[in-house]
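User: I'm writing a short report section on ligand binding and want a predicted complex to refer to. Could you take this sequence and 2-deoxy-2-amino glucitol-6-phosphate and write out the structure as tokens? A short remark afterwards would be nice.
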Amino acid sequence: MCGIVGYVGPQPALEVVVDGLARLEYRGYDSAGVAVLDGGTLQTEKRAGKLANLRRALEASPPAADGIGIGHTRWATHGAPNDVNAHPHVDGERRVAVIHNGIIENFAALRVELEERGCKFTSETDTEVAAHLLSTELKDRGDGDLAAAMRAVCRRLEGAFTLVAMYAGDPDLIVAARRNSPLVVGRGDGENFLASDVAAFIAHTRDAVELGQDQVVELRAGDVRVTDYDGAPAPVREYHVDWDASAAEKGGYEYFMLKEIVEQPRALADTLLGRVAADGTLTLDEMRLDGAELREIHKIVIIACGTSYHAGMIAKYAIEHWCRIPCEVEVASEFRYRDPILDRQTLVIAISQSGESMDTLMAVRYAREQRARVLAICNVNGSTIPRESDAVLYTHAGPEVGVAATKTFLTQLAACYLVGLYLAQVRGHKYGDEINAVIGQLAHMPEQVEKVLGTVDPVRALARSLAGADTVLFLGRHVGFPVAMEGALKLKELAYMHAEAFAAGELKHGPIALIEDGLPVVVVVPSREGRGVLHDKIVSNIQEIRARGARTVVIAEEGDEAVRPFADELVEIPAVPTLLQPIVSTVPLQVFACELALAKGNDVDQPRNLAKSVTVE
Ligand code: AGP
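Assistant: Sure. The structure tokens for the complex follow:
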């Protein structure tokens, strides 16, 4: 949700900033803008639409000077995505330029106050308030101290924000501040960077500094200074990014999503790597929750959004089955508003690929206020949600750039299974050999996914044939239900089609009325082993919809002859244990949605109206 880049150093700032924006465009892409400051000259350029529009404008009329620079890709919250509302925003004298991620909740009152002081607003954004506030603060102070002015402004702002500013009175300095919104500094040799995500500067440096809550950073070519909002030196965490620029590039694929789907076996294997100690026990080093604490847990609540929520739904089946602990799953945006019952013996598991989703972050904070212990499952090292949790289990999917989650979903599943098995081990609900047997099955999942990827060509053809459909329904039972939900979500976000998932048993309670001649219905069939009764029931459900004219697309284990007579299209997946089946059954649905969206001419990396990390509520 909005990408932010800043650069101070000897390289041409505009080039560094625009390249950084290109790597962050997945965060928001309804407009983009830059500001460069050379000596006392501040120049800005901004354009509605994708970064390509800004690039064209910069080529047509390059700024006369370079120097230091900031840049922004926007996901609009206040004001339409047009040229005027695009960032950066400047004050009346064009001495201060500001970019912003987040929402300034008290902007209306501040705007009235500033207008009374004579400030003229040109945009509908909340961000412009920050530019005028900084400018008036600098005038009131009279000492040209941009960092002090930023601290004073931040103390007045309510909401969530990363703010980055430059000031013509101090042309070697960029100042940034954060509250509830991401900001990371990249330390170079005689140059420094800042961004909402390390991807923006990974081509220049892998040494990063993670900023804490309510901190201000002053960035000069040879110096990085971090303080709190009162000006006291603030502690920061320095770390080395363990992937390089090539991991965040397309590597020959037309879209990141295509690459990320193919990367899933590797991502899964990396997430499972090194989890078993020499004595055969499962070890989750990063967990930071000791055995005694985990043995006290009497309830688990999983909170997450979107695809991560679907991973949580699947985790519930595994955790309750293996650990016999009651487990609830809830969308994070609803969680804190229903007064949930939490205590010290509740383990809250927050699943978030980005570690930044504001809904999940707010739910984490609420849970911790209620004294629950919080474990984060996250893919982004150093992001806010793991930092604010009691414990973390990182997935090792590598950077995911496509807005639709693919490899991070599969690795979230792997992480959830590991947590379930670890709890079962610590709490003595399963014998070591039982746990090892499941770990052995998990270890084979990367090759099973590889196998699925080798057989999905017919799924692509099927997807292309359905590009004209208005609606696709998805059905599943047990862990197949959240898989069906994930299939429907992928189709909605990528192909902009009406897609809806139902628990197959619920169909007869209403949704079956939707079935009409030729309506495509994708059915995720559970394994025959272990949950035979479910399998038989879903075979009946398939017959029911087919009898009413549905075109059935059946995803079933290879060799499942019982479904064959009722499948208009049969997609075979390897036979794996029931609880692990989502790892393989999701893959054809990802391919299906991606191919159908491509057939409709959609950009699958940057679907309309979306952003990769949703840092507003
Ligand atoms: C997935 O394809 C979506 N882009 C979206 O639902 C996403 O999973 C959701 O916004 C949660 O994000 P998070 O995992 O980063 O918290």
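A remark for your report: Residues 407-426 form the longest helix (20 residues). The CA atoms of residues 452 and 573 lie 6 Å apart.
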